Amino acid sequence: MPTTPMTPLARLRDTFTPAGPPTPLFGHSPRRFVRRLPYAVAIVFVAILLPVTVMFLGEGYHLNPDLALVLGLFQVLPLLFAVRRPLVAWGVAFTAHTVCAAAILGFPPGPHPQPWPWTPMAIIGMLLLLLAVGLRERNRTLIAVWTLTGAVSVVFQMIAPGRSNGTWVALLVIGGVLLVIGGLLRERAVTQRALAEQETISEAERSRRTLLEERARIARELHDVVAHHMSVITVQADSAPYRVEGLPDAAREEFASIAATARESLTEMRRLLGVLRNEDTAGAPGTADRTPQPGVERIPQLIEATVRAGVPVELSMPGLPALPQAVDLSAYRITQEALANVVRHAPGAATRVSVSPEPDGTGLVVLVVNAAPERDTPPLETGGTGHGLVGMRERVRLVGGTLDTGPLPEGGFRVAARLPLSTEEESSTA
After folding, report:
1. Main EC class of this protein (predicted)?
2. What is the CATH number of domain 296-429?
């Protein structure tokens, strides 16, 4: 949809409209000292400039004391609210400076002419305001402010060329430099905030992608578990008419229907597995994930490999009951990931692994605790992708268990998972 072009008056109004909310200068800084600095500078300069300006206008420029006080207040006090609204503060102060220059013009110069049209205090105050404007406003606003300041200076120069001593040129030059510096600092701050926001978004996307990848990987592993059950159902349904004598025809048809449905389910599961494959696991159909999924019976082999990697591990795994395949796989993977984290982040740390059933037989407890790493051994990795803890949480959530992880007070790390051996529905129907 085409936009209506702005009229010159509307463009001028937009140019001199403050950009953004009235947030303090340096308000985004994480350091408190930097956030307080603009207020401190404003208060110090107001305390210095206000009495000097009033005295100088009365004694040096022979203005009425009351008029000098009013002009001094309007010239200096805007510095206080320039911290939040620098463009408005500049507008008020610049108007007061212009009125003051016009008022001085009505008095003849003394034997020792003073700087004009801008007093020395006015130049200091305007330079501070120009820097504040540069730190906050848009580039076209900065150009307009500098142009207006120069235009008013030139007009006064043309009105009384013999009275001006050229100090307005210094104001334009130094003010232009401060506007450029302020604009560059503002652009740098905007860029840094944008990068910080993008990093936050990227971190959130990374966490989300990590979670999805772990869920897909767990789903691919559980495919074998579910496929095994479906295969058993198919075989039992197919062989039932041969194993059980005297089945009626209706029962034979029912078993045949069950076997056909199980085969269709296996086919759909293979298609689902193809959807869950990513670029790293994709390959020719039927060529991946053929290895049987491990269980707790392979944890001793995992311990031996960890010991060979230089981590002393103590294993406690008393006699375990028959475990559901999902729990069996989850217990192994949680132990595997916890030991991998020890090898990466705490090489050489003494580690204790315990896999045992609860006393009441309702759950399996997996506990991996490592001591503080040895000081002389640097960690293999100082950061991580976050896949490990995310994967543990997802596996525990899958079977309806609980996970407790965190550092220990004396150093080291603890991973404790409880995996229930039956669902609530199974317990209620038993």
Report:
1. transferase
2. 3.30.565.10
